[in-house]
Design brief:
The protein is an alpha/beta fold. Helix content is 42%, strand content 24%. α3 packs parallel to α4 (61-70) and α6 packs parallel to α7. The protein starts with a helix and ends with a strand. The active site is at 161 (proton acceptor). It holds the Pfam family FtsJ.
Length: 206
């Protein structure tokens, strides 16, 4: 099947992307690793010993960044509906966490430990219909926020990828209602023409 003009453009961008090349050289599973590295550096989000939950984790670029930072006394619990190759010091649970069985498995992995940070790089499969894609992406970030509210300890933090558009302003207000401080980041590794930004929320009100 012939590729569309837009998918050819994406492929060309991807192959020539300096962050893709850098990820291959540095051994990261995805270029998204650099987005999180920049956010962590700016917002000082991760310390040794923390418990971190990574939603939409496959292929593992974000878990790969966080696991060495939290160290042997910390933990990373990752989840995605897609498979993810195993990784040292990361507990991966495959499935849709809106399903009771998967949610229960995640909660069992968390146990009594308070979660310090929830990170979400979740995005829907893009259909090309902008309104539908935006609605799907907002649904996912709302799920991520709901999970964060259930597991975060007081003063915990939350990072989520958000596509600016219909519903994103209301979502920002919703996030602000649960956290002391919310900033919007556009990391250098985020493609300029992409509508994606990252909401970084600190100080969960609990």
């Amino acid at each position: 099947m012939a590729r569309s003009k837009s998918s050819n453009q994406w492929l060309s961008e991807h192959v020539n992307d300096p962050y893709v090349k850098r990820a291959q050289a540095d051994g990261y599973r995805s270029r998204a690793s650099y987005k999180l590295l920049e956010i962590i550096k700016k917002d000082k989000l991760v310390r040794p010993g923390m418990m971190v939950m990574d939603l939409g984790s496959a292929p593992g670029g974000w878990s790969q960044v966080v696991a060495p930072m939290v160290g042997v006394k910390g933990r990373v619990i990752a989840s995605d509906i897609l498979p993810m190759d195993s990784m040292a010091d990361v507990d991966f649970i495959q499935g849709d966490f809106t399903e009771d069985a998967v949610f229960d498995e995640i909660m069992a992995a968390v146990g009594e430990a308070p979660v310090d940070l929830v990170i979400s790089d979740m995005a829907p499969n893009i259909s090309g219909v902008n309104a539908a894609d935006q609605a799907s992406s907002m649904y996912l970030v709302e799920l991520a926020l709901d999970m964060a509210r259930q597991v975060l300890k007081p003063k915990g933090c939350f990072v989520a990828k958000v596509f600016q558009g219909e519903g994103s302003e209301e979502y920002l207000k919703d996030v602000r209602s649960s956290f002391d401080k919310v900033v919007i980041r556009k990391p250098d590794a985020s493609r300029p023409r992409s509508r994606e930004v990252y909401f970084v929320a600190k100080g969960f009100k609990g």
